[in-house]
Amino acid sequence: MRQFGEAPPPPTFFERLKAGLAKSAGVLGLDAIVKKKLDDVSLAELEEALIRADLGAAQAKAITEQVAKGRYDEDVATYDLRRVLAGQIAEVLKPVAKPLIIDGAKKPFVILVAGVNGTGKTTTIGKIAAKLVREGAKVVLAAGDTFRAAAIEQLEIWGKRAGAEVVVRPPGSDAAGLCFDAYTRARQAGVDVLLIDTAGRLQNKAGLMAELEKIARVLRKQDPDAPHATLLVLDATTGQNAVAQVEAFAASVPLTGLVMTKLDGTAKGGILVALAARFGVPIHFIGVGEREEDLQPFEAEAFAKALTGAA
Q1: At what angle do helices 241-252 and 271-279 cross, to 10 degrees?
Q2: Rounded Cα–Cα distance for residues 8 and 126 (Å)
Q3: What does the alpha-carbon distance between residue 10 and residue 53 come to, in Å, rounded to a whole number?
Q4: Is the peptide bond before 108 cis (omega within 30 degrees of 0)?
Q5: Residue pLDDT, tens place only, 245-267
Q6: Taking the alpha carbons of 53, 57, 58, 63 in that order, is the dihedral positive or negative?
Q7: For residue range 9-36, what is the model confidence (pLDDT) as tens digits?
């Protein structure tokens, strides 16, 4: 029991996630959907609500059909529907809820991080670096977004905060050359993990993808298996646009994992379900705020419950 005047404990990550996804849960409007029976009308409303929450038409239809199995024309209380819906969504998400594994046999283990500007890419790199350093890893960051001075400065701040060395060059420098130098530095220093930031916007999409491909080629000259992981950072508020981003980046560099940021306060949280069903790319982390602890490993059941308001 908390004593009078004692500060309440800080909210848990799940509580922050639930609060962040409240808009997405509100879009579902399950209180209004469930009337007396799970009939054609209420099922159609449920499917439309799932589409509004950005799960995508195909996934909304598939999940609605699963919810209806064995329950058609039965009385379904709101809580029961939330629980059932959360269970179905969790089944879609479980296959992609995988942690980021660092292979200690590869030194440095190279993580290339991509994403368009504004997704929180550089901040995400800083948060991952801080977690790795806290776990005992020696980390180097490469400021490969040489087109934006602000990105370089931001990464330097995170590097100091995390206790990780940051390899930088003046704005406008060749990004691939910087990454080559960063790998050399990391290998010579016996570093465990090299995290590489990349540009999020060049003159056009073709230019952006060509830059990523060039960085990957340069890294492979040092290690044929590098990069060992390629993460795409996505902004949840963009909704269905995230699908096009995954398609575009995956066509240029093989993606090994996704990170979804800005889940706090968006009504489009269901996009994560659509991405899981369509691409099957592992989802490593989700973010609900600016602090380091606001980026956490993705858990399918917790996310499904928060999305549907089931708990």
Answers
A1: 40
A2: 29
A3: 28
A4: yes
A5: 999 999 989 999 999 999 887 77
A6: positive
A7: 667 777 888 888 888 888 787 777 766 6
